[in-house]
Structure formats: C-alpha cells, structure tokens
Amino acid sequence: MIRFVARRFLETIPVLFILATVTFFMMHLAPGGPFSSEKRASKEVRARMEAHYGLDKPLFQQYLLQMKHLLHGDLGPSFKYPGQTVNEIIAETFPVSAELGLEALLVALLLGLLAGMVAALKQNTFWDHFSMSLAMTGLCLPTFVMGPLLISLFALHLEWCNAEGWFFPRDRVLPALTLGAFYAAYVARLARGGLLEVLRQDFIRTAQAKGAGPARILFRHALRGGMLPVVSFLGPAIAGLLTGSFVVETIFGIPGLGRFFVTAAFNRDYFMIMGAVLFYAVFVIAMNLVVDIVLVWLNPKLRFE
Amino acid sequence: MISRLSFPATVLFLGILLFCGCGRRQTLVEIANQVQQFRVGNGGDPSGLDPQIATGQIEHDIMLALYEGLVYGDAKDGSPRPGVAESWDISPDNLVYTFHLRKSARWSNGDPVTARDFYESYHRMLLPSLAAQYSYMLYPVANAEAFNLGKITNFDQVGFKVLDDYTLQLTLHSPTPYLLKMMIHNSWDPVPVATIKKCGEFDNRSNPWTRPENFVGNGPFVLKEWRMNSHVLAVKNPTYWDASHVRLNSIDFVPEESYDAEERMFRSGQLHTIRTAPQSKVDFYRKNKPNLINIYPILTTYFYYLNVTRPPLNDKRVRLALGMAIDRRAITETVTRAGEIPAFCFTPPGTAGFTAKAHLREDPAEARRLLAEAGYADGKNFPEIKLLYNTLQNHKAIAEAVQEMWRKNLNIEITLKNVEWKVYLDEMNHTNYDICRGGWGADYDDPGTFLDINITGSGNNSTGWSNAEYDRLCRVAAGTGDTAARYEAYQKAEEILRDEEPIIPIYVYTNPRLILPNVKGWYPNLLDSPDYRSIYLAPETP
C-alpha cells in the first residue's frame, strides 16, 4: 500500500506541472488584463502597477518566476485585494466552503442513501418510484432555481431563517440543502443501482435461505458491495463540495472559496486563478487517492497494484 | 427491524428536526434598530480600504465612514463642508488656499491630525512608486503632476506647504474653482503615515495597514471587523472631533454582489438599505411599496461611443443620423423603466449648475436625409457594423431596442456583439469596435469631469475623435477661475460635441435605492454619497 501511495504521489507532480503551465498561458492569452477598468489609469500609473507585480517582464520570464514561487508554496499576491495574498485568501475562505461542503455531504448521504435503500428494497413499488422521481427532480433542478425557491419559502414567507449570510447556525440549513440535494439525487440513484446488483447475487439468496431478516441482509451483507458505485462517485464529489460552489455561495452570500474560481477569472486576477486551480487540483487528486484506498478495502476483488 | 414506513418517516422527522427552533424571530434589522446599527447592502466586496489605492464606489462608500478629509460632502447637496479644516482662506487670484485645521481632530489612536499628516499623505499619494490610480485628482496643485510622473523628485517643489501644525497651504498651478468639490473625494483623505510605516513600506500598494488589527483612521467611524465576502463592521469612533453628533453606534456593510440576493436580504429584514434595486423589481416597489423605494438622478450618463476612425462612422453625417434616429423616451419608459432621464447632451443637465444648451434633436426624417447625403440613401450599401456591449441584461435590452429603431428609421442592419467585461474593456480601450456601449460617472460635481474625456489624447478618449477647437475650449475652461467664462467654454464644447457626435448620449442614470422609512437623516444626492454623520434609526412604527 505504501508503494501504491508513493507511486500515485509521484504521478501527481507532472500532472500539476502541466496544469500550472496550461493555466498560466491560457489566462495570459485571454484578452484584457487585471488593471483594465472603465475609468482608465494613466499609462504611467498602469505601467507602474504592472511593474509592481512583475507583469512588465517578458511572458516566459514571468512564467519561470511564478513556477519558482509555486515550488516554494507561495501563490503570490491578489490583484483584486491589494492587501492580501492568495495564500491568505484561501486560508480564510476554504474553511467556510469546507464546512458548507461537509454539511451538504451529510445531507447528500443521509437523503441519498435512505432514498436509494428504500428504492432498492422496495423495487418497482410506489416507494421506489416516489424516491426515484424525487431524485430525478433533485438532479434536474439546478441550484440557481432551488436556492431562490428555498429562500422564498423559508426565509421570506415563513421567516424561519435569514435569506443570506453565514453568521448563525441556522444560516447553514438552506445552503446545505441546496448544495446537497443534487448530490443526494446522484447518491440515491447510484446506491439503488449498486444495491440491486448485489441483492441479486447468490450469497444474498443464501443468507435469505438461512433465515436472515431484511435488515440483517441489507446492513450485514449487501451494503458493503452495494456502496461501491457511491464511493467512487464520492471522491470527486467531495473535492467539489469542499472547495465550494460558486452558485450556492453567491445565492446565499457565503464567504467561501467557491466564488473565487469564477470571479478571479473575470477579474484576470492571475495569481488567484492559478492558486484556485492548483488548490482544487491537489484536492481532487488527494480525494481520488483516498477513494481508491477505500474501494480496495470495500471490494476484496481489488488489490493495490 | 426496518418497518415498511420508517424510512420516509425518518426523512420527514429529520426534516422537521432540521428546522426545529427556526420559528419567527426578530429580524437583524429589528435588533439593529435597538442598538443604532445601520445595516447597509454594499453592492460588492471592497478590494481594499486604503483611500489612496481603492477606486470603486463600493470602497468609497465604506471609506466615507472611516476617513475625513479637509472638507466633506454635505448630506443633502454634496457641497463641501468643513471637515478636519474648520475654515479656509482663498487668495484673490484663486491660486492659494490656506486651510486652518481644527485642533480637536484626532486619529482613532488618539494622535492629533496635523497639517504634517496631510502633507505626508499627499506625498504618498503622488509618489510614482505607489502607482495610485486617482493621483490625478491632486493635479490642480502646482507641480503635483510633474512629481507624480517622476519629472521632479523633490516633494518640496510641489505646492503643499505646512505653515504650522494646524495650517496647510496649497498653491495651485491655475485657478480651479471646483477644487473644494474635488477635495471631497477620498483621494484627498489623510492617511496615518506612522502606522503605514510601521506595517511595511510606505509606498507599497500591498501594505497591510488597513487590516482591522492595524487600522487607524480619522473618520466618524473606525474599522472593527473585515471578513472577505462576509462583512465590514465599522463602529463609532470616540476620538472623532464631532463624535457627540454622530448618532449611529455602528455600520455593518454587507458585500452582496448580486442585486437579487441583496434585495432578498432587504426583504427579509437583514438590511436597512441597498443601493440599487434589481431592474425587475423596480416597478413592483414603485407600484406596491413606494415608501421603500427612492429613485433619484445621479451624475452618470449612459451613451454609445462611435469609432470615428473607421468608415462609415468617420463621416459625421452618419454619426448624427444614428443619434437622431433613437427614441430615448421609448428606451427609458419601456426598457429601463427606473425613471431615467433621456439625455440629449453628454453632461447630465444641472451638473454644478451647468446645463448644456446644445441639444441633439430626435428627428428620423432629418436622420434619413443625412444618411442619404452620406451616400446611404434608404440605408442602401450601408456596411455591416457591430454594436459592442458587455454582458448584462440591461445593455442587451437597450442594444436590441436601438437596433430595431435604426432598422425602422434608417433601414440599416447592425449586429449586436456581446462580450465579457474584460474583453469589452480591452476592445474599448484599443478603439477596436464600431459602436460601443459606454457609461461615465462623475468623480466630482463639475462638467469638466465629463467633457475632459473627449480631449485629444485623454486616457479615456475611446472614440479616436480629435478636435483642436474642443481641446482649446476645455483648456480655457480648466485654466480660468471665472465660472461664467468656464461654463461658456463648456457650452461651446458641448455644441461641438453635438455637431460632431462622437458620442451618442442616451440617458442620465437614476438610482433606485431601497431604504426603510425608519432610516432618518439620509438624503439622495447627485454623487450618491451618504453622510453617516447625519443618519440615525428611528424606532419602527408598528
């Protein structure tokens, strides 16, 4: 297993390198720069702002410089926030996104697994159709529709919680639901599929023949194998959930990292774009690694190789 | 044992549990009213709070609470009122301004605010290495521009002089009757030089002195908390010289970027006011909740730039024809619908008492005649041109309306080109377009802030238009202290603009602000700058 992890770790290095390189040249190719604005600064001022951030150097030299800084873990300054570095921004906003992500994940697993199990156990009954159509709705309803709908109902009409913000525990409920619903729907469908496949296998029939009750069959025998598709889905899903969602964070006014993925690109905030992309990449890679380890543990047919 | 019904029942139970204790409670605004906390939707996250670096309205609105210049803008009409300076003398030739600072003015750390502080602040503002975007606001002062551009390096040669601890003298290079109005702008605010030096390099844009733990200011409020994309909390500054008249205890600026989300916050009792109601809601508030909406004109014009360097728009007859064939009232009444004022000249009417006499005439028949004269009778052979705008619902709707008006009135086809903000700026800055949406807001209340952008070689001249007489008139206006003579020059400049039409004015913006009726002491003004000194919260009427 150590060799497996070590190899995966080494594989990561060229991936990140290529990613950083492509990101660098793509963002510098995009028209417009970080300091263009409707009211233009004079040429002299703009030149000096660019010099301050080293943007006056030839592109390739900038590239080498940035790579050097990246190697030292220095993501650089933010153009949008002159007083902050990208490292600081990520350090401040990631915990918020991660918290929301965890809560959404909880929602996703709780609702998704429940619905999936019900559907699998009661295949082709009302409960199956009901939970699967609910899951379908969850998949089809985009967050930017679901969010405002929930706000409308619970914050504006019932006045149970605030419409926006991230100050009180109750502020977590609606965003976690909105963000979690989509993933819950996915989890439900995957869990149902996975369970159905396992439930048809011989060892389940054997267990039934031995007189095991439905609960024992589900939790003791079927669940482990039935969860395989869910677990492989969870790797990238967790990375996506924890690093934040632009839409949900914007709708609910949440000070998370997710917004920066999009706004940094709009602002041509070069260092911020690079920082966000690399941070996300590292996270996805790490989560995939964890998932692979868990999959081997869940499925005796697999081996670390 | 898992019974038939327990799954759905569990889901339901959990759902109820989730909202347990979430019943109707006091809204944030209701709580805030009791402690005089003004909750403001700020329209976006401030990028910084250094008054010499930050440039946007979002930052400006917060900095109004945190700093005070020699003068500040009156709550009602925005005119200059004594701030740190309790009085000033102006020499008869209008070139020397002597400011007498009040001895009671203090920084939030207790230090007195002295003439030296202002001197060193202006030194920092003009240092080429700071690269302050608004440094040009100080250019009326003798040699300020030369110093800022690095042509001279001795700051003593610039027209700032400390006569004693509480007297500051400014010498201008030419009379500038609107100087005091310019000084309302935050680029003229003092900065705490000692604190800045303690936190890092004096001239480093990234100096962290404005973080709450380092922050020192001299305004009626002082920075307490600043969390990115979350909120900026300013509390009453006990060392402020006029603290006894400040009635709010704190201001919470909530940086919500989306107008829709902001409006939801307002509606659910989280905010006292938001600057701009979303377009789609303006009508609703006007009809159903007129006591919550306040629509007032601001000094910003919406217009189209015409690229005069390319055919067919290098022909002024074509430009005039395009300008005459737009029905502005139809746009403001059916498209934008927030009480905007149709604009027939570039400078918004009433800017510092100036209203241009030259008016663009809406006359489709005359427009057709001009177009025919230019060789495109009934729109025949008119080359394909594009109208460029940045992605935003309103710009698109207006562009479509204009496209239709030109089709109907002139029988010409134009193509709409919708691009992302930075691409739009890039094309505009490089005059790489045919027709381009533009907007211009005043930095201070004076026609010059509008008309100067069309001067040949001005950094903001995006049309490629150049007119020697126009340049001369703007120079004359800038160089005289006689308001009548200035305005006469500006009248002639507007006349040339109307005759040449490098810019098609469309409307003057209004701002539809949502504000609760219990917010007292707030007044609409042309620069949309609130004065937090005068604002207070009345108990809500049931």
What is the terminal separation of chain A in angstroms? 8 Å
Largest interface (CB < 8 Å): A-B, 67 and 65 residues
Q: In which range does the helix fraction of chain B lie? A: 25-40%
Helix percent of chain A reads over 70%
Question: What is the overall number of helices of chain B?
Answer: 17
- Please state roughly what percent of the residues of chain B sit in beta strands, choosing from under 5%, 5-15%, 15-25%, 25-35%, 35-45% or over 45%: 15-25%
Q: Mind describing the biggest β-sheet of chain A?
A: none
Shape of chain A: flat
- How many individual helices of chain A? 13
Poorly predicted tracts of residues of chain A: none
| Average pLDDT metric of chain B | 90
Short structural description:
The complex is a heterodimer of chains A (about 300) and B (about 550). Chain A has about 300 residues and is mainly α.
Give a structural overview:
The complex is a heterodimer of chains A (305) and B (542). By secondary structure, chain A is an all-alpha fold. Chain A has 13 helices and no strands. The mean pLDDT of chain A is 87. Chain B has 542 residues and is an alpha+beta fold. In chain B, 31% of the residues lie in helices and 19% in strands. In chain B, strands 1, 8, 9, 10, 11, 12, 13, 14, 15, 16 and 17 form an 11-stranded mixed β-sheet that branches. In chain B, helix 16 runs antiparallel to helix 17. The longest helix of chain B is centred in the last third of the chain and has 18 residues, at 393-410. Chain B is globular, with a radius of gyration of 26 Å. Residues 1-14 of chain B have low confidence and may be disordered. Chains A and B meet through helix 2, helix 4, helix 6, helix 9 and helix 11 of A and helix 1, helix 8 and helix 14 of B.
